[in-house]
């Protein structure tokens, strides 16, 4: 043990503080973009979430994804609908429920919306980004297991994913949907073909 171990804040705390600072920068970028586009970060989060799901989503799923109550999500959805960025459609599986889908205008806005964390990670090398992606997917998975985050469409929670199918190789994982080996850099945080392990 060195002198610095005695005087340093625990590593876990310093790491958490650093991540909180990065999240604050990311949110500031979202606010600046939102001012230009006329959306709050919450509205933008919901719009981007809906745009990645061509079959549409229910209000409760959008609320879960944004980490807000249904009433708050409903207000955001009303604003997005008023701006002609999303529309409500009948749910083919439940006639009493509505699905939210983006309009062409909404899909175009969601597509051009900058990834706010991109400026945070772009200074890392390709190898560092790959390691970070693996760690991020692991953290998301742990939060999902603890029921602290809405279900995510990550590789690590998909029934097609075979983790460490070829340990020690450059492509240790395997995707049974694609039928091909995968490297850590291929991991997805939001895969459109995702099917939950629980399904």
How would you describe this protein?
The chain is mainly alpha-helical. The chain folds into 2 domains: 11-112, Orthogonal Bundle (Arc Repressor Mutant, subunit A); 123-186, no CATH class. It has 8 helices and 5 strands, in the order H-H-H-H-H-E-E-H-H-H-E-E-E. The chain has helices spanning 3-7, 11-37, 41-51, 59-66, 70-82, 104-112, 118-121, 126-145, and strands spanning 86-91, 94-102, 161-162, 173-175, 180-182. The strands form 2 sheets. Strands 3-4-5 form a 3-stranded antiparallel beta sheet, with no helix packed on it. The chain has a two-stranded antiparallel sheet with strand order 1-2. A hairpin with a 4-residue loop joins strand 4 and strand 5. Helix 4 (59-66) packs across helix 5. It starts with a helix and ends in a 17-residue tail after the last strand.
